[in-house]
Design goal:
The chain is α/β, with parallel strands linked by helices. The chain has 2 domains: 4-56 and 158-252, 3-Layer(aba) Sandwich (Rossmann fold), CATH 3.40.50.1820; 60-156, no CATH class. It has helices at 4-11, 28-39, 97-107, 116-124, 146-156, 158-164, 166-173, 190-202, 230-233, 237-252, and strands spanning 23-26, 47-50, 73-75, 80-82, 84-87, 93-96, 177-182, 211-215. A hairpin with a 4-residue loop joins strand 3 (73-75) and strand 4 (80-82). Helix 6 (158-164) crosses helix 7 (166-173).
């Protein structure tokens, strides 16, 4: 924010002001889009987050990091049921959460597989005594570490941070948050979006005044296009979001702002 972006704007004639910056992305990029807008609320004028990685860790895909004791199993008095890790648009399960995590452990110990679950640990996790990220759960057993979960909540649970700090963030984020997700996301990412939407729709003083939209039976990477399949819509993020960005600029640019020199 303080070095790279100003240099890019200098080289490519960027305006260099928060009202003229926007962020968007899908999947991990969707989480990053909302995270950057949340962590730097004045520096961007809108985020468009498609199929974001979990933005509420009560739905860390299918795991509630704060209430569940084990990530791999739903356990009861008489049985335990494996948690799903990946599904298709009909809900048919292709792999369990234990399977995909044990695959990562086979590829690399200490969060070094380069795969998704280890990547999340590397981003969100506190540093352990060995210099590597502390595990959110034991890769072999699935047992969740509540201390690590508490650290994640205060630093990277975006819905929690928005709710915790809305008195300060709300006026800065009004009209800026836009979320899109398929309701049959392969990795159950829509569950966290539901929880975030529940909070956002309840906001007052101010109301978030953004947008949350879902694709019927759409799998991962749905980005708000109700007309085309994911294979095509995922190639046209610019076409999807630039008109929304221009509309936002027209509504929110400060008086006297340059609204013409960059339009060709």
């Amino acid at each position: 924010m303080r070095e790279l972006i100003p240099e890019v704007e200098r080289r490519f004639r960027g305006i260099g002001e928060g009202w003229a910056r926007f962020t968007y992305g899908g999947s991990t990029g969707g989480w990053e889009a909302l995270a950057v807008q949340t962590f730097y609320p004045d520096e961007f004028n809108g985020c468009f987050a498609a199929c974001p990685d979990p933005i509420d860790f009560r739905a860390y895909t299918v795991v509630d990091l704060y209430r569940d004791r084990n990530a791999y199993w739903v356990e009861g008095d008489w049985k335990r049921v494996p948690r799903p890790g990946k599904r298709n648009w009909l809900g048919h399960v292709e792999a369990t959460l234990e399977m995909v995590n044990r695959l990562e452990l086979a590829l690399g110990t200490k969060s070094r597989s380069g795969q998704q679950w280890d990547i999340w640990e590397a981003v969100y996790g506190p540093v352990g005594e060995d210099g590597y990220p502390r595990r959110i759960w034991d890769k072999l057993t699935g047992e969740i570490d509540p201390e690590v979960a508490a650290y994640w909540r205060e630093n990277y649970d975006l819905r929690h941070i928005l709710a915790r700090d809305w008195a300060v963030l709300g006026p800065k984020l009004e009209g800026k948050i836009h979320l899109y997700c398929g309701d049959m996301d392969n990795y159950y990412l829509n569950d966290a979006v539901y929880l975030a939407e529940e909070f956002l729709e309840s906001t007052t003083d101010p109301h978030y005044a953004g947008e949350v939209d879902y694709g019927d039976r759409a799998e991962h990477c749905w980005n708000g296009d109700h007309e085309r399949p994911n294979a095509l819509s995922r190639l046209r993020y610019h076409q999807m979001y630039v008109p929304k960005i221009l509309e936002r600029i027209a509504k929110s640019a400060p008086e006297g702002a340059d609204l013409t020199s960059w339009r060709y």
